[in-house]
Specification:
279 residues; alpha/beta; 434 Repressor (Amino-terminal Domain); Endonuclease, Chain A; 2 domains; 53% helix; elongated
Length: 279
């Protein structure tokens, strides 16, 4: 970029930042320890000029904008730290809090496709008896409260306000069917009821609800949920790592779509596959 072009961008952005902050030339000069005439020269339309590095830094700090933005190197006026803080946040994943947070995120994404990779079976498709078996393993948690917190999510799903895609590994359903691994101490009738519920719900709600099964020996995913183009969340145990910056959301969306393309059981056939596991 030509030096005069950059100086012109600097002048315009300095003026815009002063308007937003409500600072006059005199006030800005005092805060940055320069003469008022120096600020006037930087704002001169006929012969704009660039200040030295020290003054650029002082102006950016005083006006709460980034140096890169003032110099035309980015279109984001926020400082890098503010951009990161706005694009990524940690949300507690305690069960009672996280369920309420997840419902809020679901409602925020109404009208958009939601993509989900759960840690085990999807909470939203778990039966009451499975939830009663599973949630007491968390300290200081009331299983009845946990079950009640899932109902609004299922009710939201049944309103069919958004398309919902879920991808889980084949071995998760197989383990549930056989009563091994995570499900080793879960009674057979509870496991059968759970699988029947998933199969019937997938059949009843297709194509708005689509469940894909992938082979974890070929592809892998951490637990994630992508709420349309607005938000992507990674579950990391005690917290959710939430991204709102478009590039990060798009990258995780591409990752989920890759899981769907690589799925060995398509959503059209998943109910039949689960019923075969039960038999």
């Amino acid at each position: 970029m030509d030096k005069r072009d950059r100086a012109d961008i600097f002048r315009k952005r300095l003026s815009d930042a002063m308007d937003v902050s409500g600072l006059s030339r005199s006030h800005l000069a005092r805060l940055t320890h320069v003469d008022r005439s120096t600020i006037g020269q930087l704002l001169n339309k006929t012969s704009p000029r660039l200040p030295n590095g020290q003054l650029v830094a002082d102006l950016a700090a005083t006006l709460s904008v980034s140096i890169d933005w003032l110099l035309g190197l980015t279109n984001r006026p926020e400082s890098p730290g503010d951009i990161i803080a706005g694009a990524m946040a940690l949300s507690p994943a305690e069960r009672t809090v996280a369920d309420a947070q997840l419902l809020d995120w679901h409602q925020e994404a109404t009208g958009y496709k939601i993509r989900h990779v759960p840690a085990t079976l999807p909470d939203i498709l778990k039966t009451e008896r499975v939830l009663n078996w599973e949630y007491p393993s968390f300290e200081n948690q009331n299983s009845t409260q946990m079950v009640d917190s899932i109902h609004p999510q299922l009710n939201w799903l049944q309103t069919r306000q958004s398309d919902y895609e879920i991808a889980i590994p084949l071995h998760e359903l197989e383990a549930c069917a056989r009563g091994i691994s995570y499900y080793a101490d879960l009674d057979e009738d509870i496991r059968r009821e759970q699988l029947q519920f998933i199969a019937q719900t997938c059949r009843d709600m297709f194509p708005r609800l689509r469940l894909f099964l992938f082979n974890a020996r070929r592809v892998f995913s951490a637990p994630i949920t992508i709420f349309g183009p607005k938000l992507a969340v990674i579950y990391v145990g005690q917290c959710y790592l939430a991204f709102r910056e478009a590039d990060r959301v798009n990258s995780l969306t591409d990752h989920f779509d890759w899981l769907v393309r690589e799925a060995e059981i398509d959503a059209r056939h998943v109910a039949e596959h689960i019923e075969n596991l039960i038999d």
